[in-house]
Amino acid sequence: MPRFNVSPAAAHELLPACRLLFADGHAEARRDRLLSDASASGVFVARSGDGKLHAATLVQVLPGAMGVAWAPRGDSRDATDAATAAACEWLRSRGVKVCQAFATASEVAEMAPLERHGFRHTTQLVSLRREVRDETLPQEPEPMLEWSDQGRPMGDEFRRVLLATHEGSLDCPELTGPRTAEEVLAGFDVPTRGGSLSLYREDGEPVGVVICAESTKDTVELTYIGVVPAHRRRGVGVRMLIGNLWRACYGGYTDMTLSVDAHNTPAVRLYERHGFVEYDRREVWLASWPR
């Protein structure tokens, strides 16, 4: 007979589970968000026969056969392992092929239950920020690229160029491998507040794409910038980046943020050369469940 009864948390267990998982004082708000997103998120708890919670973990299904997991927390290895096993099985049953988990330097030890269930440390995610006041922005290099805003759902040409930019990319390549082309595209074709899709051309030929989303009313996030292989190392990425800094400025934003794989040193150096400063760094674990 198993020591723990493990299942998705009942409604009355969500708040104590959130208090166990998060020590930021916002357990009630997190509980409310989970109640409004019950189909995509799973909170799994390990409880003893008397109903006492001994461990909890939170996982979420994302578009494009992706998932994300939070560090499990509990009062024993057996309890956290039991909750983690159930959560991983739930993700796989919903078609997740790649699941990410993130941790600060102080949380690394808490990732052990995930490591025992197939997650492996792969890289660090570096978050950078830059002000976009016009007096601080570099001049746009010549020749300027042509660009056009694209609508959602993504059109065929934008989809083709976006996929092409993934070929040989150094930015989290582990996320692409197990997934089909349609799944990769589905991960990007998600409406966001204040979001934009831009297709860039040089002499009429598509050379890259940029995807942005509004983080706050003052901050725009550069969620993706990609150059097709034939046009790399020709200054295309620099021109797209600077052009979007100016677009953000004209759009009334005061800051631009982005995140990049620490292993992608050419991109990190590019952003740092153009005024971006690191403000956060997270360790990244991945589990891959190809079908």
Characterization of the model:
This protein is an alpha+beta fold and 291 residues long. The chain is built from eight helices and 13 strands. Strands 1, 2, 3, 4, 5, 6, 7, 8, 9, 10, 11, 12 and 13 form a 13-stranded mixed beta sheet that branches. The mean pLDDT is 92.
What is the CATH topology classification name of the largest domain? Answer: Aminopeptidase
Helix amount: 25-40%
Question: Structural class from helices and strands?
Answer: alpha+beta
Q: CATH class of the largest domain, anyone?
A: Alpha Beta
Distance between the termini: 32 Å
Oligomer: single chain
Number of domains: 2
**Total of helices:** 8
Averaging pLDDT over every residue, what do you get? 92
Series of H and E elements: EHHEEEEHEHEEHHEEEHEHE
What is the approximate shape? elongated
CATH superfamily of the largest domain: Gcn5-related N-acetyltransferase (GNAT)
User: What is the C-alpha radius of gyration, as a whole number of Å?
Assistant: 21 Å
Main beta sheet: strand number and arrangement? 13 strands, mixed
In the CATH classification, which architecture of the largest domain applies? 3-Layer(aba) Sandwich
Strand content: 25-35%
Low-confidence region ranges: none
